[in-house]
């Protein structure tokens, strides 16, 4: 098993440690805002433990996934909303 | 301090009480609304907010159709917070038998002047691609819609208040007497020409003899998934669930909200007084929904809650004087249709108070129907 995986963040390939959460990969790869609130405000990860729901992104076509609760997989397609 | 007197005291500021207040106030009556907890709380806040024409009986059909048209007339006045959306209903047929049922239902509606559209399996897939693919078809009722009920209750009450209706919130009524008096928990009394008990599932607490039972329901709301569902979707087996007189029942019922969120229902339980979520019933309800729409299982639910419908033995509401000539009126027992029929209920009540011919027959809804029944036993 390889120690690194490559996933796609808004179409851009990013290589991270295989044990990274999607949230960690996102923070490494780009600015902290990942999505927009109902009223259009930028939102990004806060609690890092699955409680605050602020770090949601679309993963493999599935919206509202909590990036801090999901580990990176090879070829994963991650979409932010900002 | 002198006790003010009113033409009408309305107990309960749910959507039915608010609609009655708006109609009474528009007639120039001096109205007081007394609400124990909050405006637009109770079943008004717990329900889905489906504006739906239902054909359980001719009387129910007439009241729901009349009310649905009143919502349409009101549409232009409704503030955006009410989120009125004429998304239509699709009654979904899972079996050949249910497809025959959809055809009969469609004929019934069409004969009574309601636009309907029968969908075959392919048309149903096109209309709602997320539904399971092997369904038989369905019946679309395009005139049906969705509102956000608490906002609607606030809007109706604000209409009433524009005509000098008074509102008391946070004081509980413990009795609504036949003589038109309201007793509050704090010991004070308010006298009035007429009292209308609009307290939903709490209405028997104020008027103990009335035949209203609590019927518990669960709902789930998801995160925002715009376009996932386009119509209010209800399985044709829904009426069967609504009829199950004794046992707990669940039925597939999904509603798209303006926000992109989905409401997932429904459950019905008698004898369940506890407001806590019943995990067994919730699991059955969701599994029913997943069976019709497997993709729902991958969505994120953000909240689950329960509420209590006000159910009557014949599935029709109680609208009108408690007894011939009584100063106590009832507007309760709307079960799962109170949001739809609130407007029609208010028109019937006002016609009765003012001694006018009602816009539709009020006979099937008169509370006296149960008094006569018990008198003959």
UniProtKB/TrEMBL annotation, chain A:
One of its GO terms (molecular function) is oxidoreductase activity. Keywords: Oxidoreductase. Pfam families: Fer2_4. This is Uncharacterized anaerobic dehydrogenase. It comes from Pyrinomonas methylaliphatogenes.
Automatic annotation (TrEMBL), chain B:
Pfam families: DAO. Keywords: Oxidoreductase. InterPro entries: FAD-dep_OxRdtase, FAD/NAD-bd_sf. Residues 7-351 form the FAD dependent oxidoreductase domain. GO terms for cellular component: cytoplasm. One of its GO terms (molecular function) is oxidoreductase activity. This is Glycine/D-amino acid oxidase, deaminating.
